[in-house]
User: Which sequence fits this backbone?
């Protein structure tokens, strides 16, 4: 009678599946860490900032007054608040009839703003800038330098990656790009 010789060399299907699952999990964690170190937060911040300002500009149309406040919080995050005033008395009292706020930037993202054609100025923690748009045309109003100039853009950077948010003064258009 022949004896059956079992050969235990090789891997079972369960062992292969477990190894593949572990490799996938490690790859996902490494990929996430790489995206955080390669400037992905700057890109996300630029796109969210542009979207929030664009929403505020659109909301301004047909309102009495809408103010968009871009603020670097003391914890380092960037927030955008949209205050809507529906009457002159709201403005005089300093109380908006509606207020909407959202966090658009992560900590450790450098945010700078530009006035006119000048250089960029870093938005320090605790500081803010205020943007306003014309309710009829959607064009930007002069709100920089005590109302004598325009805010014209933002430069957002992290880990050597730089994104720009351009604010067109006459048309009110808002665009993002990697070019200045």
Assistant:
């Amino acid at each position: 009678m022949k004896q059956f010789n079992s050969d235990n060399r090789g891997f079972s299907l369960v062992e292969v599946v477990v190894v593949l699952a572990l490799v996938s999990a490690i790859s996902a964690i490494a990929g996430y860490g790489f995206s955080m170190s390669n400037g992905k937060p700057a890109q996300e911040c630029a796109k969210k900032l542009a979207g929030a300002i664009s929403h505020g500009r659109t909301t301004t149309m047909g309102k009495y007054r809408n103010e968009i406040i871009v603020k670097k919080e003391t914890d380092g995050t960037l927030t955008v608040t949209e205050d809507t005033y529906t009457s002159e008395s709201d403005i005089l009292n300093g109380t908006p009839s509606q207020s909407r706020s959202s966090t658009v930037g992560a900590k450790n993202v450098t945010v700078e703003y530009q006035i006119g054609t000048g250089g960029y100025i870093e938005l320090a923690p605790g500081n803010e800038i205020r943007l306003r748009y014309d309710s009829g045309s959607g064009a930007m109003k002069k709100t920089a330098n005590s109302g004598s100039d325009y805010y014209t853009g933002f430069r957002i950077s992290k880990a050597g990656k730089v994104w720009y948010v351009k604010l067109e003064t006459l048309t009110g258009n808002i665009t993002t790009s990697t070019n200045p």
About this structure: The mean pLDDT is 86. The helical segments are 13-37, 40-60, 88-93. Residues 133 and 146 are 15 Å apart (CA to CA).
